[in-house]
Design brief:
Length: about 120
């Protein structure tokens, strides 16, 4: 099998309301860079699924970065879709990813319905 290398794995929610905003952001922030992209309801809410995809991206595509994007009014979170809960889960995901892949840069974002991205630190 030949090696294909890309910059990052980007994980976001499947919510159709935000796809154009995410693609616009990716076009700006990953201009002329290749990346793997996966969408799951709740983005990294089900971390086990994400970690499986991440492992494949690391092994096959030698990524250097992971980008996790959660969003406002997420149906997968239901009534628990608050900025605080998303920040908590994003930070939990980053901690686990850093433990498994210490050389990977992990960036966390919370996307508002109006298209504004907030970086979660």
């Amino acid at each position: 099998m030949s090696t294909h290398i890309c910059e990052a794995l980007v994980v976001s929610c499947i919510d159709f309301r935000l796809q154009k905003k995410i693609q616009k952001w990716l076009s700006k922030n990953f201009k002329n860079k290749a990346y793997d992209y996966v969408g799951f309801a709740g983005a990294s809410k089900d971390l086990k699924i994400i970690l499986k995809q991440l492992d494949i991206s690391v092994r096959l595509h030698k990524i250097k970065q992971v980008v996790l994007i959660h969003h406002e009014d997420c149906g997968a979170y239901g009534k628990d879709s608050t900025p605080e809960n998303h920040a908590r889960d994003l930070k939990k995901a980053k901690k686990k990813i850093t433990k498994l892949y210490p050389k990977l840069q992990t960036n966390l974002y919370y996307l508002h319905l109006d298209g504004k991205f907030d970086e979660v630190k």
